[in-house]
Design goal:
13 strands; six-stranded mixed β-sheet; 9 helices; alpha/beta; about 290 residues; globular; binds magnesium ion; binds guanosine-5'-diphosphate; binds zinc ion
Length: about 290
């Protein structure tokens, strides 16, 4: 039987087989070889006599995000509130480096525009000037911009990520309205909480579209890249790769740096650049164990 892992709690996985949600354990071989099934994985399961399932194969992943840890996302929506809680743009950039590393296209969604001032919106736009990322200001409460956002989900597997309290679950609920799928089964079996999302969960929007609701994060460490390659994960900096005077230019204090010239010319935002420098130093100075 084939299915999709829609939730994982304490070593148990819930697999949507289109006709049922099966509680499954992974075959021992996965643990022995250090492979962990992830929410979003397409899997082959064997039905056991007691009605539970055994995951015997994990199909090749289209993508694999480290944070939130989900498989097969084809796009990411990074959700923040315009204010309340105040957006941490440094956290946003760290997340975007993570999606660039995983090759998952991302868009930025700023929710709660109903309680935002024009200045706040302007300052956020400026912060991402030149980055190329699409930014949407919406209000889940007033349903402003939410239908347009829902259109973007068609045929995709979208991961909604961001800090707690910004409205991710509210959005997921909106996106699931008028859904033809039966999920009564699912909510009973995996006890979908109404409040804080503690585990990533994959939900069906329609036959071809899925969405991950994920727990909020407050910090974000970037692992797996050398400081010298960091700029390659900033689309607006990557464009100028090879244009600096020195190979191995860190784009921080070297003369004739193409990237700092673009910063001066306003093509790269000060916010994105400052976050780059902070992250560069953090990676550079990290103790290697
Ligand atoms: N003012 C306002 N509040 C919102 C909006 N969207 C969600 N909220 C509220 O923000 C709080 C957190 O929402 P929730 O969806 O649980 O956030 P999550 O932690 O990101 O999943 C709840 O009290 C929501 O009612 C919005 O567009 N405007
Ligand atoms: Mg939530
Ligand atoms: Zn440079």
């Amino acid at each position: 039987m084939q299915g999709k892992i829609v939730k994982g709690i304490g070593g148990l996985y819930y697999v949507d087989t289109e006709t049922d949600i099966l509680e499954c354990k992974p075959k021992g071989i996965f643990r022995k070889s250090g492979i962990k099934p992830l929410v979003g994985d397409d899997v082959t399961v064997e039905l056991l006599p007691d009605g539970t399932g055994l995951i015997v194969d994990i199909h090749e992943r289209k993508s694999c995000l480290i944070r939130p840890e989900v498989a097969n996302a084809t796009q990411a929506m990074l959700v923040f509130a315009v204010n309340a809680p105040k957006p941490n743009l440094n956290l946003a950039d760290r997340f975007l480096v993570n999606t660039e590393m995983a090759n998952v296209p991302a868009i930025l969604v700023f929710n709660k525009s109903d309680i935002a001032s024009p200045e706040e919106i302007k300052s956020i736009k400026n912060g991402f000037q030149g980055s190329g990322y699409e930014i949407r200001f919406i209000s889940a409460k007033n349903r402003k911009g939410t239908d347009e956002l829902k259109k973007l989900l068609k045929g995709k597997t979208t991961v909604l990520a961001g800090p707690s309290g910004v409205g991710k679950s509210t959005l997921v609920n909106l996106f699931q309205e008028n859904k033809t799928m039966e999920t009564g089964d699912l909510s009973e079996k995996i006890m979908r909480g109404k409040n804080t999302t503690r585990h990533s969960e994959l939900l069906r929007v329609d036959e071809r579209s899925w969405i991950f609701d994920t727990p909020g994060f407050t910090s974000f460490d970037v692992f797996g890249i050398d400081a010298g390659d960091l700029y390659l994960y900033y689309p607006e900096m990557r464009k100028y790769a090879g244009k600096c005077r020195f190979t191995g230019c860190a784009h921080i204090s070297e003369p004739d740096c193409a990237i700092r010239e673009k910063l001066k010319a306003g093509k790269i935002s000060q916010n994105r650049y400052d976050n780059y420098v902070m992250l560069y130093n953090e990676i550079k100075n990290r103790r290697k164990y």
